[in-house]
Amino acid sequence: MTQPFFADIAPVQYEGPDSANPLAYRHYNPDEIVMGKRMEDHLRFAVAYWHSFAWEGQDPFGGQTFVRPWHPQDRMETARIKADAAFDMFDILGQPYFCWHDADVRPEGDTFAESLSNLTAIIDYFEEKMASRKIKLLWGTANMFSHRRWMAGASTNPDPDVFAYAAATVKTCMDATHRLGGENYVLWGGREGYETLLNTDLGQELDHMGRFLNMVVEYKHKIGFKGTILVEPKPQEPSKHQYDFDAATCIGILRKYGLEGEVKLNLEQGHAILAGHSFEHEIAVAAAEGMLGSIDMNRNDYQSGWDTDQFPNNVPEVALAYYHILKSGGFTTGGTNFDAKLRRQSLDAADLIAAHVGAMDICARGLKAAAAMIEDGGLETALKDRYAGWETPAARAMLDSDFDSIFDRVLSGDIAPEPRSGRQEILENYVNRFV
Ligand code: XUL
Ligand code: CO
Known about the structure:
- The chain is an alpha/beta fold.
- The chain folds into 2 domains: 33-376, TIM Barrel; 381-432, no CATH class.
- It is built from 16 helices and 12 strands.
- Strand 1 and strand 2 form a beta hairpin.
- The chain is globular and about 80 Å long.
- The model has no long low-confidence stretch (mean pLDDT 98).
- Bound molecules: D-xylulose and cobalt (II) ion.
- D-xylulose binds at residues 101, 141, 186, 188, 232, 234, 268, 296, 307, 339.
């Protein structure tokens, strides 16, 4: 350990399902083979720097509750202590990846140039630390929603100088991600939306966002970044309405601006719920379009309706998410990022470790349940059976015909539509055998 913060905590080991040790993995066994692949390589866990190290416990009604050795966070000296503690935690958890925003890792400077030089110094520091470890960068991103300059958006800001600041910021974050060998670059548009339509030219803002995303892709190719560009949908919060509302909306926007072959989606459980969907809905929509990139795993409090970013703790929900991920072939450059934070009363270093250990175990159980369902094949068989009618030559030919010929066939009485059970309860019972 380089810092005293985690000093009393030993590296977390897999001890099996019967272990009573709260800081042991009971299900996450990185080397265990699931559907022919190591569990670690399926799940590709990442720790989110912002929730675990930058967030200080504030909520809308109260300020900081956490007291950490890296506070206050407005200086380079504490940014280095924060990095030390972060890498200590990575050593303890042994997860393969982490993710950051620029604003999580470096203090804001008085000028753009000073912020950049702070970022560069921390990326140097990360590079040194990564050289002697197996930890890798799943993705980097720019925080273009916290500072007051972003209050009316970044690429969709009515002020072209803010658009320029956003472009320069993303360039520096893509450079840093590329330098660290990041496997993806994420854009979540927290304030790319509006507070009121009374002051918003929605069409113009969308065109600016489309051009901005094209610049991101152009720059990716210019610097030879081989990772995937990911857009992260969310319907609202902090903005009243966000343009990247949900997977389907993002896909429409990406197609409109000619980016469907270049950009994929980073889907978050809590954002799916905010949009009125299930997580597996969002995953299935993206997978159907070949745009499933990565996931932010967390959960919301289903009573409050806010994006509470809690650690996942529901195996059946997680299992259905991984079922759709495995069905679509699993992650390539993507992974499972814990975009999740402690509750503000969970003050201790042990709370932070336990939160991740529990979340990794829940995901491991979900993955194993999903793999068992795939290997058993029950859902796939039921699906094939339900759509079997479309396997006949007549049904297939109909899709290449037109309304008039279909009408003639229907009028001649040559069809026999018969309602059939959707078997929902039987299928739900089936899933419950595995979770
Ligand atoms: C906010 C959110 C972000 C993105 C990255 O709701 O999910 O942390 O994941 O900017
Ligand atoms: Co997220």
